[in-house]
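DM from R.C. (forwarded with permission)

"hey, sorry to bug you on a friday — could you get me a structure for this? deadline for the figure draft is monday and I only need the backbone to look sensible"
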Amino acid sequence: MVVAKGKNVETFQPTEANQESIIKAVLGRSGSLRAPTIRIGEVFYVGFNETLYSEIPFGN
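My reply, with the result:
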């Protein structure tokens, strides 16, 4: 799971131990899931970061 918040990008391997950290990272200020949220294979990309979306698997 890759979570983008502005210029920051965090990568998580979901486990029981980090579940709370992931929830905190993927929810926006309003309490909704950050947009965009994309699943490619087994990986979820949550939130927007221009650099992240210009890289593989998104970029040219």
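R.C.: lifesaver. The chain has two helices and four strands.
me: no worries. The radius of gyration is 11 Å.
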